[in-house]
Amino acid sequence: MNQDELDRRQKRFNSIVLIILVLFFGRLVWFQIIAAPSINAESLKARLVEHNIEAVRGNIVDSEGHILATTAFSWDVNIDPVNVGPVVLTINDQKVSFTKEQISERIAGILRIPTESILSKMTGLGRYANLKKSVSASAYTKLKNLDIPWIYFDRKQSRHYADGAVAGNLIGFVGSDGSALAGIERMMNSCLAGSDGREIYEQGADLIKIPSSVQTITPVRDGSDVVLSINSDLQYAAQQEMAATVRRLKADWASAIVIEAKTGRILAAAEAPSVDPNKPGAVAEQNRHTRIFQSAFEPGSILKTIAATTAVDTGKATPLTQVVAPDSLRMPWGQYINDSEIHAPEKLTLTGVLSVSSNTGLVQIGAKVDSATRYEYMKKFGMGSRSGVNFEGESSGQLSNYKSWDRMTDKVVMFGQGVSVTPIQTAVMYQAIANKGVRLSPILVEGCRDRDGNMTRTSVDTPVRVITETSAAQTMDMLERVVETGPIGRTARIQGYRVAGKTGTAQIAEGRGYGRLHAISFVGIAPAENPQYIVAVTAYKSRTISNSLGATPGFVSVMKQVLKTYAIHPSSGKSNKLATNW
Amino acid sequence: MSVLRAIQPIRPIAPRRHLRPVSSVPSPIRRPQQAVSTRSAVVASTSKGLAKKVIFGLVSVVVLNLLINLLCNQSIYKISELKRESADLATQAQIVGQQVDSLRSPQNLANSARALGMIVSSNQVFLNVRDGKVLGTAIPATAGNANSVSSNLIANAAMISKSDPARFAQAKKAKLEIPAISSNSTSVIPAYPSSTKVVLPSAGIPASPTH
């Protein structure tokens, strides 16, 4: 082989190597440059995970910051039936094998469900069977510690109401899917809910999230807190009292409202039966609402105060205006207005009329004011319109225009028939009297407070001057005499304090007439010399006591608790001792 | 460029096999090569040094990258483990928090107060600490006017823990040792020893923040 041949071979070899290298290089360029974007995209697609970040629902807190509703976590417990088998557990450092029947018993004990239901779900070739939904953190931890390979959990948000039914009817509740169904939960959902976020990140084959790869698409915004005006300790005490009242009176329901006279803040809105938002299904459907805002009924004698103060404010009467009140008064058109009991004609002042709650006496004095004016005053006191809280499903009660009143309605509206009001409307009317004649929009929700502590206060209606300050003071004097001298009113006395108030016993409309049972009530204000708190108690369809004697013990108990809670000193001074008779 | 470098070493090997006298055949090609030999040698030596540095730099970058990746990977697993631990602790905190909520719930407190035989004060009396004036009339509780705390009537499905009334007996036995004031002491301030022993009940109503 000569040199030339060798050189040729050398060149050929070099060329082949060069071609191979060029091919490799070409392939390299193909992968690294030309096809790189699509390869990278495909790879990224396999690694990328888009994840929804659930916003945490805000809390509902009382006026003292005590949490009434919060968000906790619960777990759905699921099994993978196709992989179900014996389990080896470590007990006292020893490995113990359990058959699936034995382990089912353990699971049943933790979840408090029948073993049979677990065993029935273990059969089949499916990959999913739910054993129980929304189990507590405690049960979840116990199950997780068993380390059963074919059990897995789905964590989800759930609402936790630490005080149970305390303010339950106000707070409302959410469904199993977290949707707000009733009460503040629903009414203030836009404040509480927040908005979910979205992020994408890369994860490894072992499902580990690569931190540097996280990209936020939409930032999560957790829900804000709703701040209520309610004092939960007072609310509990009032609810206890109302529950006891319902038992004592065998009533359908009872309610107690506490309002701060000078601010309109609702400090307690208790009712019984009440709903525990943790378990709303445990009570009948009609007990899951808020009757204080949603139930309107004829108020009865509670409205006499409004007729009396209207007469005083219009100058048609004074607290000492005299009237002879028979037990039955014949109207010019032949119908009768009766008092609740038979009695000889009584010489009463307007104060006395309120003290003994005389229908016949009131009608005579009240009629001095024309219908249109009385109607206007009733409207100014808040009748016929919603309270201003605008609670969901709130009733505005019923107040038809005076032009549609017939001759009898024109008279009976003065003592609370032919119109209907909600318990909150009743309380607000007395708030106006206690607040020197100015009606305030009641406040239940103070506002919405975000996570940074910024509070957006709930807007309130403009205060309404209903009666003059003098008329309000005169009305307070009359109401104080109701408690000092009234046959039922005196049962609302509280030792050491001057109390003003009015009884109410209302017939309940049934069909075209009235039923046998009554709505009994008492609304009181204390201390009378410097009105600060209004407590309005109502018991609906009392079956043991048919007049306000059934309501005053509840009033006394709740008002005492109010005075204790807010450290109101015993009263000084005495009432004006207005004459009740002449 | 790398291809050419790979081929270059082949050239000097092939002529050596034939051992031909090369001096008699002066290569016209070599002359110009020799003519530039000093300059190209300097350039080559500089290039070599640069190449070494570049290669060393690249290798260092690769090694450093590997090390950082290794550390990052370890951190990722550590983060993942810590997140799991944090979730477990959050679950524990939720359990304990709910137990505390249960114990301080008004329902539990009412039942505990009743079990302790507590009564509702019939009327409140205030003491003004500034002037020592008593506001209100104190009325002692008697069998006639004392209303015991009513047992709880308000439902609470979230009450997972309750105070155990059976343990309240221990609370009654609790002793608070208050040291006597020495009779010959000149100070009106009682000299409490630093080791004042307060025996508190081990069980009973747990202290709850007032709300």
Name some characteristics of this structure.
heterodimer; A: 582 residues; alpha+beta; Penicillin-binding protein 2a (Domain 2); 7-stranded mixed β-sheet; 18 helices; B: 211 residues; mainly alpha; two-stranded antiparallel ribbon; two-stranded antiparallel sheet; 49% helix; rod-shaped; disordered N terminus
Cα gyration radius of chain B (Å): 47 Å
End-to-end CA span of chain A: 154 Å
Structural class by helix and strand composition of chain A: alpha+beta
- The strand line-up of the biggest sheet of chain B is 1-4
Instruction: Provide a count of the helices of chain A.
Output: 18
pLDDT averaged over residues of chain A = 92
Find the count of extended strands of chain B (DSSP E, 2+ residues).
4
End-to-end distance of chain B: 82 Å
Helical residues, percent of chain A: 25-40%
Give, in order, the helices and strands of chain B: HHHHHEEEEH
Specify the biggest β-sheet of chain B.
2 strands, antiparallel
| Overall 3D form of chain A | elongated
Number of helical runs of chain B?
6
Biggest interface, which chains? A-B, 56 and 45 residues
CATH H-level homologous superfamily name of the largest domain in chain A: DD-peptidase/beta-lactamase superfamily
Category by helix and strand content of chain B = mainly alpha
Oligomer: heterodimer
Question: Secondary-structure map with pairings?
Answer:
The complex is a heterodimer of chains A (582) and B (211).
Chain A: H1 3-34, H2 36-47, E1 48-53, E2 60-61, E3 67-79, E4 87-91, E5 94-98, H3 100-111, H4 115-122, E6 129-135, H5 137-146, E7 151-160, H6 168-171, H7 183-187, H8 189-193, E8 197-202, E9 215-218, E10 225-228, H9 232-249, E11 253-260, E12 266-272, H10 291-294, H11 304-313, E13 322-325, E14 328-330, E15 336-338, E16 346-349, H12 350-356, H13 359-366, H14 371-380, H15 407-412, H16 423-434, E17 438-439, E18 445-449, E19 455-457, E20 464-465, H17 469-485, E21 500-510, E22 513-526, E23 533-542, H18 552-565
Parallel strand pairs in A: 2-10
Antiparallel strand pairs in A: 1-8, 2-3, 3-6, 3-7, 4-5, 8-9, 10-18, 11-12, 11-23, 13-16, 14-15, 17-20, 18-19, 21-22, 22-23
Chain B: H1 2-7, H2 10-18, H3 30-35, H4 37-103, H5 106-115, E1 119-120, E2 126-127, E3 134-135, E4 147-148, H6 168-173
Antiparallel strand pairs in B: 1-4, 2-3
